[in-house]
Write a structure and sequence with these properties.
- It contains 58 helices and no strands.
- It is an all-alpha fold.
- It is flat and about 130 Å long.
- The relative contact order is 0.03.
- The two termini are 70 Å apart.
- Helix 39 packs antiparallel against helix 41 and helix 43 crosses helix 44.
- It comes from Danio rerio (Zebrafish).
- GO terms for molecular function: chromatin binding.
- InterPro entries: ARM-type_fold, Cohesin_Scc3/SA, HEAT_SCC3-SA, SCD, STAG.
- This is Cohesin subunit SA-1.
């Protein structure tokens, strides 16, 4: 056994003797200071005898690798053929490399050990080299300290952490080198009390280093060294046992036949083996206590993982010595490690132990102590760890059925429904082992002779059904089947047994399957059929359909043929037995889609096809549930595929069925229309049931030749005129009419339609849209919701996109919604989507069913909102309508935040300026609501005002960092905000603030998005609305104006607004200095000129002054007349004819509002400069003209703003999104590539040309 009292190696403190080296201190010396008296002398590196050994052979003579050239040359120069380079290149066989080293060690062990020391140093990534004089004269700690100083700190990488195939191979070669080294030296060198002592001492010192590379590399080397020593100890133990048996056999012989000489040799050999065993155990104890005990809890997870992985190897190889609680406790403690990779190594190490059932008794105490932790790890957040934990629990169960309690097993059972397939499959293996594996060979043999319900799988299938019902996750049967597919495929593919359990009557004494059990069995059987036919996991498991291997493809074909052959016969009988049960029939009707339908004709099984069609017809006649009818419709659609020869037979049966349904529907409608309000329940039921069946079939089949639209339209018109149509009939009539229109459109787009066909379809669509619009005011919510969804879908289909892709001939079918229809759609969204959920469920209790109803209702409302938002982003509904959607962002963030976010992103891509005007309009609407509720005297500290400001801040984040790309949109937003704040004067007089002045405080949130020169332009525009009296006021009611002006002056030439005077505190001297400091105009950067030119000269259609067009009526919010805003804006065309502003407003040279404001400011300054120059000399006039020209020059600010306030704005922009590291500066071209920021970084899809949106 290992001597647990062996002390850890320490550095020598003998500083007086230069030839005493800590690297050479042996294990035995630490045990016994007087070892020199009784044992052979071990070599010391400083002894004279070391220099008198015979000379080493030259590398040429050896024909192998040269020893370390550094040792040969006493530190002068380097040799590429070091051990590190040889192992790194991996070109030489490791056996020959080690043999060469052993040969050199026999000639000069100091130089050979120096080679080995430098090998470990270089494998750590250290560029330094240990010289021979360092090896002889310096202590261990000093050498390591010296190597630490020479470590290359430019990169944190070292060989063990580098990526790529070369370094992966290096790690393998490094480990192999150590293992082969010990294996080749195990008979002599490792017992010379020098080599191993030196290596262990070096690795112990390196493993305690602060340098991660040293610690990592030395720990790996030490653990592999320990593993190699365990192998040696195991061999010694085996040899000892053999020697002992030989000695006992020889000694037990009779005296005449006993060989005393052999006994003495065996005794001598046993003694020598015992001494070697003691030496090896001392070495292992030294490594374990000096390195493992400290490093298994290292700060670096990789180092901890190495220790745990190797101790698992030791326990497996030498279980007699290591498989006890003294070593198992380290693995048990590490099961709680915070890093998944370490926990993973623990579980894999334990798996290797539990796999060997002979070791289970030694693991019993460990199992009892750490079983709860292992079971809890099946829910580990790291999926890989959870998978291995489940496998380990399965091994524990295999070792002992009693080791796990029922509660432990239940914790694993439910994981078969996990969305992560490896976890579910591992749990399926556990479930199979626990419930479905048979342990009685005699009973199994007796049952194997039986077939069907009495076969071995009969009881197991019943057990599976019982498990499925008890788990109460009926909608996840496909997940359960997929989890068990790998481990229980024979059971799951026993369709014969399943069908017999469903069709045959139970024998006497056998328990009868209940209704729930039959439903569950049918559901499971359908899932197994799907899994076998499709050969891929259900939706939600796996990233997609993978390519099947040839073996898997063959298995799939065989399974499909087998299930087709059997179920073609059994399915009509199953439908006949369960034809009145809607749930069972709906599941059974899914089976034909997985058949190989060619078998009907190739196998001459047409009679079974006729039987199937007959049963489907019976099902259609007896059921009115949409789930069943849709399953029948889909089955007919599959059987009518043109690629199969059975198509004609099925088509005839389908046509006969539709004929009967159509006739019945026509007579029912006539009866209902004639009786009107006097119609009884039977008339209503006949119309509704027949209409449901026709609607379900119209979804998958072209029934236009039966002209169902006519009667549906008559029903809808009667319902509108009389207002007494049952809601279900109205909903189904709307849906059936919608399908009829779509099938007519398909015919037209696939053929060459005439003008009459187009006009006829246009009349149909127009009349149906009118009916849907009228249904929006229906008293029944389901009717209104159905009409709204169909309106949105048809407006999307028959929009301007219909004529794209070379379909210009379909132009007559394009419909554009008028203003009244847009307003009705928006009002519907506001009334039915943006509502509190509690208002819908005031009378309901908070039970589980209520929660499910709430989720379903929310899902329905999200669909309604998404349908309307699609109309906005595809430019079918005017963008200003989105203002009523955007303003709800903060209030309904949890329910609709993702939809509103995506809509905002898409609208910005359409038109940045119009989107900005829509954003400010939404804020204006919220502000107007607040004014109506609280009056003109707002409490600016209230939560309502803070909510509007927070929404504005979120909107500001959408403009991102690239201010050049969004400068026009942001400037337009400020323009509209300023006009809104000042357009309504205070009725008390001009000395009182305008009622909307507080809106400027909201507008401050967007000031950080303006460029510096644009802030000056916006500030000039603001001053047009301000009087001198306003500039001088400092009361609280004027604070929004002061704050807004300060936000515009921040970062510009006018640094601050004087709070005491209200005027710009700009110094002429400082202005002159700033102008002198600028580069001359001809030295401006070319990229600035190109950016300014492309921005200033762009042809923009934005008029100024002009208000944003708003819908006629969108909500109860007070809406302003856009023309009123223009009445309050000063006339900007006051310059004389022929001036530059007059030229700018020429339609042939139309500019954006920001350009016009900048040009007007330049002209104003030039005119004031001309008046000033008349009273000055020529020199002063020239100087002033130069200053004016400089003042007109725009200043382009870098995207990384310099002022502290701007940097804070930029930091605030990302405080609730993500941290983005930006370089200190970017050139103009790079900034142009930056995408605008959104509420989070994943919401931007700048150039996505796709038709659909991900959320819809």
């Amino acid at each position: 056994m290992i001597n647990s009292d062996f002390p850890v190696l320490q550095d020598s403190s003998n500083d007086g003797q230069g030839d005493t080296i800590s690297l050479a201190i042996s294990v035995s010396e630490l045990d016994d200071p007087e070892v020199g008296k009784g044992k052979k002398k071990r070599g010391r590196p400083g002894k004279q005898g070391a220099a008198n050994k015979k000379a080493r052979r030259s590398p040429v003579d050896k024909g192998g690798r040269r020893p370390n050239g550094v040792a040969h040359q006493n530190g002068e120069g380097t040799d590429p053929s070091t051990l590190f380079e040889v192992v790194k290149q991996g070109k030489s066989a490791m056996q020959s490399v080690i043999d060469d080293w052993i040969e050199s060690y026999k000639q000069d062990r100091d130089l050979a050990l120096l080679d080995l020391i430098n090998f470990f140093i270089h494998c750590s990534g250290c560029k330094g080299t240990v010289r021979i004089e360092m090896f002889r004269n310096m202590q261990n700690a000093e050498i390591i300290r010296k190597m630490t100083e020479e470590f290359d700190e430019d990169s944190g990488d070292y060989p063990l952490t580098m990526t790529g195939p070369q370094w992966k191979k290096f790690r393998y070669n490094f480990c192999e080198f150590i293992m082969v080294l010990i294996r080749q030296c195990q008979y002599s060198i490792i017992y010379d009390e020098y080599m191993m002592d030196t290596v262990i001492s070096l690795l112990t010192g390196l493993s305690d280093s602060q340098v991660r590379a040293f610690r990592h590399t030395s720990t790996l080397a030490a653990m592999k060294l320990m593993t190699a020593l365990v192998n040696v100890a195991l061999n010694l133990s085996i040899n000892q046992d053999n020697t002992q048996r030989q000695y006992e056999a020889e000694r037990n012989k009779v005296a005449g036949k006993r060989a005393n000489e052999k006994l003495e040799l065996l005794l001598e050999k046993r003694k020598e083996l015992q001494e070697n065993q003691d030496e090896i155990e001392n070495m292992m104890n030294s490594i374990f206590k000096g390195i493992f005990v400290h490093r298994y809890r290292d700060a670096i997870a990789e180092i901890r993982a190495i220790c745990i992985e190797e101790i698992g190897v030791w326990m497996k190889l030498y279980s007699d010595a290591f498989l006890n609680d003294s070593y198992l406790k380290y693995v048990g403690w590490t099961l709680h490690d915070r890093q998944g990779e370490v926990r993973l190594k623990c579980l894999k190490a334990l798996q290797t132990l539990y796999t060997n059932r002979e070791l289970y008794p030694k693991l019993e105490l460990f199992t009892n102590r750490f079983k709860d932790r292992i079971v809890s790890m099946t829910l580990d957040k790291e999926y890989d760890v959870a998978v291995e934990a489940i496998r380990l629990v399965t091994l524990i169960l295999h070792g002992s059925e009693d080791a796990l309690s029922n509660e432990d097993c239940e914790n694993v059972y439910h994981l078969v429904y996990s969305a992560h397939r490896p976890v579910a499959v591992a749990a399926g293996e556990f479930l199979h082992r626990k419930l479905f594996s048979r342990h009685d060979p005699q009973a199994e043999e007796a049952l194997a002779k039986r077939r069907g319900r009495n076969s071995p799988n009969g009881n197991l299938i019943k057990m599976l059904v019982l498990f499925f019902l008890e788990s109460e996750l009926h909608e996840h049967a496909a997940y359960l089947v997929d989890s068990l597919w790998d481990s229980s495929h024979d059971l799951l593919k026993d369709w014969d047994c399943m069908v017999e359990l469903l069709l045959e009557d139970p024998v006497q004494g056998e328990e009868v399957l209940g209704d729930r059990h039959e439903s569950a069995l049918i559901e499971l059987m359908v899932c197994t059929i799907r899994q076998a036919a499709e050969a891929h996991p259900p939706v939600g498991r796996g990233t997609g359909k993978r390519v099947l291997t040839a073996k898997e493809k063959k298995t799939q074909i065989d399974d499909k043929n087998r299930l087709t052959e059997h179920l073609i016969v059994a399915l009509p009988m199953l439908l006949s037995k369960y034809q009145v049960d809607a749930e069972k029939v709906a599941n059974l009707l899914q089976i034909p889609q997985y058949f190989d339908l060619e078998v009907y004709s190739s196998g001459r099984m047409e009679k079974h096809l006729d039987a199937l069609l007959k049963q489907i017809r019976v099902v259609v006649e007896k059921h009115a549930e949409m789930e069943v009818l849709e399953a029948c419709s889909k089955t007919y659609s599959i059987l009518c595929s043109e690629e199969y020869t059975i198509m004609n037979r099925v088509d005839i049966a389908r046509s006969q069925l539709i004929d009967e349904l159509t006739d019945k529907f026509a007579h029912s409608v006539e009866d209902l229309l004639q009786e009107g309000e006097e119609a009884d329940d039977d008339d209503i039921y006949n119309v509704l049931s027949t209409l449901k069946k026709l609607t379900a079939f119209h979804n998958a089949h072209d029934l236009t030749k039966w002209d169902l639209f006519k009667n549906c339209y008559r029903l809808l018109k009667m319902g509108i005129e009389q207002g007494s149509m049952p809601e279900q009939i109205a909903v189904q009539a709307l849906q059936c009419s919608h399908y009829s229109i779509l099938w007519q459109l398909v015919k037209i787009t696939e053929g060459c339609p005439s003008k009459d066909d187009l006009l006829a379809l246009r009349r149909v669509v127009k009349s149906f849209l009118a009916v849907c619009q009228q249904c929006l005011s229906n008293v029944n919510t389901p009717v209104k919701e159905q009409a709204f969804m169909l309106l949105c879908d048809l407006l999307m289909i028959f929009s301007h996109q219909l004529v794209s892709g070379g379909r210009e001939g379909l132009q007559p079918l394009v419909f554009n919604p008028d203003g009244s229809l847009q307003n009705e759609l928006l009002n519907f969204v506001l009334d039915h989507v943006f509502i509190d959920q509690d208002d819908e469920n005031q009378s309901m209790e908070g039970d589980e069913e209520d929660e499910a109803n709430k989720i379903e209702a929310l899902h329905k409302r999200r669909n309604l909102l998404a349908a309307f938002c699609k109309l906005i982003i595809y430019d079918i509904v005017d963008m200003p309508a989105a203002a009523d959607i955007f303003k709800q962002y903060m209030k309904y963030y949890n329910d609709y935040g993702d939809i509103i976010k995506e809509t905002l992103s898409k609208t910005r891509q359409m038109d940045k300026i119009q989107c900005a005007k829509t954003l400010i309009l939404s804020l204006q609407q919220l502000f107007n609501e607040l004014i109506q509720d609280q009056g003109p005297n707002l409490d600016r500290t209230s939560s309502h005002v803070s909510g509007i400001k927070e929404l504005a801040r979120r909107f500001a984040l959408t403009f991102g960092l690239d201010q050049i790309k969004t400068r026009e949109a942001v400037a337009t937003l400020h323009k509209d905000g300023i006009e809104f704040a000042f357009k309504v004067p205070n009725p008390k007089g001009p000395e009182y603030p305008p009622p909307n002045l507080a809106f400027l405080e909201v507008l401050c949130e967007f000031s950080s998005k303006l460029l510096r020169q644009d802030k000056k332009t916006v500030h000039s525009y603001l001053e047009k609305f301000m009087t001198e009296y306003m500039m001088e006021r400092r009361e609280d009611v004027w604070l929004p104006l002061i704050a807004y002006r300060n936000s515009l002056l921040t970062g510009g030439d006018d640094d601050r607004l004087s709070v005491t005077t209200g005027a710009s505190s700009t110094s002429k001297a400082s202005t002159v200095r700033s102008k002198r400091g600028r580069p001359p105009q001809h030295k401006r950067r070319p990229d600035e000129e190109s950016v300014e030119g492309s921005w200033v000269m762009r042809n923009d259609t934005l008029q100024t002054p002009g208000g944003l067009h708003t819908p006629q009526l969108t909500s109860t919010v007070l809406r302003e007349n856009p023309r009123q805003a223009a009445d309050h804006i000063p006339d900007q065309d006051s310059s004389e004819p022929g001036s530059e502003p007059d030229y700018m407003h020429n339609p042939q040279m139309q500019m954006s509002w920001l350009d016009q404001q900048k040009m007007e400011e330049v002209n104003r300054k030039e005119r004031s400069g001309m008046n000033y120059m008349k009273s000055r000399s020529a020199g002063v006039r020239q100087q002033v003209r130069g200053l004016m020209e400089d003042d007109a020059e725009p200043i382009f600010e870098d995207v990384m703003m310099s002022s502290r306030g701007q940097l804070e704005d930029m930091n605030e922009e990302f405080e609730d999104t993500m941290v983005i590291d930006l370089p200190a500066s970017r050139n103009r071209r790079e900034r142009a590539e930056l995408r605008p920021d959104f509420f989070d970084s994943t919401a931007i899809m700048e150039d996505d040309p796709g038709f659909g949106m991900q959320m819809f």
